[in-house]
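Support reply, case 0932

Customer input (verbatim):
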Amino acid sequence: METRMKHPPQNRPARSLSTGVSDARGSGGLRRRRVSAGALAAVAGVCLGVGAGVVPAAAVPAVGSAPAASSKAAVPKGLESFYGQKVEWYDCVATAGVEKSADKTGFQCAKVKVPLDYSKPDGQTIEIAMKKHSATGSVRQGTLFMNPGGPGGSGVDDVGGMVTSTFAGVQKSYDIIGFDPRGVGSSTAVNCTSDTELEAKTEDAPVNAGEAATTFEQRAAVISAQFKQFEASCAAGTKPAELLDHVDTVSVARDLDVLRALSGDQKLNYAGFSYGTYLGAHYAELFPANTGRMVLDGALDPSLSLSEHIRGQARGFERALRNYVTWCQSGQNCPFSGDADAGVKQIGDIFNSADQSPVPSSDANRPVTGADMKQVVSVMLYSTETSWSVLNEAFGQVVNQNDASAFRSIADQLDAQPPVNTGANIAINCRDYQVEGDMATWKAQSEALQKISPRFASTFDGAELGCQAWGHTGTQPSKKLHAKGAAPILVIGTTGDPATPYEDAVSLADQLDSGQLLTWEGNGHTAYASSGRGPCVIKAVDTYLLTGTMPKKGLTCHGTE
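Our regenerated output:
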């Protein structure tokens, strides 16, 4: 049975923050009462491909100590030592991580220092990890930085697979660098208590999340207790603990400009996916003169508040579910009868029934709840139709045999391969947004979500309440970003994207003074980074990255064309 785990890491879940108060896996993880940044951001599994091309000797910088190449871009005052530091590149593994390798893998790694707090450049410092795949062609055009999404996703871990998949058409010309943003992975990271320890700590939560949290007030009590417990564990495990107050995306964008300078490039060439579009847009706003060729795929609208973002995502998943049902009913062996409305309702009924009476699986001790199924469906909607037959099989077993073994198998695979650091995901999300409203506001928003997205509302419920309990929240309201003076920026939106709805891409392209929208009529999350993309998308993006020539205005690519 094909599952999304067999895809390269191009469908990284978007930023999402929910609470994980549902029974069993709920919206928050694969174990009961696990605190998480949501099924959409913390559970989707990926399989890293290894792609180390043949690297000409002339394209590989000498291993060891090398001074940073000169850059004519302005160096912010007080940060001269960071922009001028030496970078110690070394041969490293082609798989995940930054471990040294005795072999020439085509990858080199390094760590550099940046300020913990940019307002205090003489204070504490932290480390940012990079992994570089050197250009395989004889003519090098510079460096292409990438961010795979999250937040909390590791560019260090993902760059290996994406070099030979997403970036296959440009890796001859560019050194491609994946980096771990502050708080993530091999950089100075947010470290939190393990799930097992956390579950033990939350046993004293005022309401049992799996049994009695039926009203918003009851769920709110659980959400607050869990986020407070999780914050305590993260603060205890993170060194320095002050990092939790400095993982905002603006700080990451400033780190990225340091990395640009240390790569020797006067302009930042960049491809960001999902959350990576939010980072890229903020970079262009802060450093428009330093912005080179920038691709923002699966765009987020930076002008939205957290509640507005959550509402759009909930609507996006509901729409994607309908797209799946329509696709299912147009083929053979679809387990849903009637039209799309009827099929969507049947799925909701299955979720509700399984929550009341979990469905037996191949593991007699672990029947599958509706929340378990919902989590699997959410993740599978990140993929294109080529993977949706898996859902047909899983739902068919439930409908025809009262057997959820297929759901159990997929869920276990997802549990084994979380793509983001949950603590970092929560920390970054909460630092990027102001907490707005009060308990009455959040209750009204919860009720509105139920109407907008009856099947997925519980996945998104209580995000601002969770951030309030977390405590390390943003201080500035969300705003439109214009990046006045930046070079042309290519924004890509997918019409059936569940996690970053198409409307976000339209809005971001309109906000950016030099933004231009490329539309992909397709399903799943992102376009250029999708396994279902066609030559139209590939040619448009590769041509822009290689020549700087934008696609024709208003270009719409259709499916696999």
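We compared this against your earlier run and they match. Two observations from our side: The chain has a mean pLDDT of 86. The two ends are 26 Å apart (CA to CA). Please reopen the case if you see a mismatch on your end.
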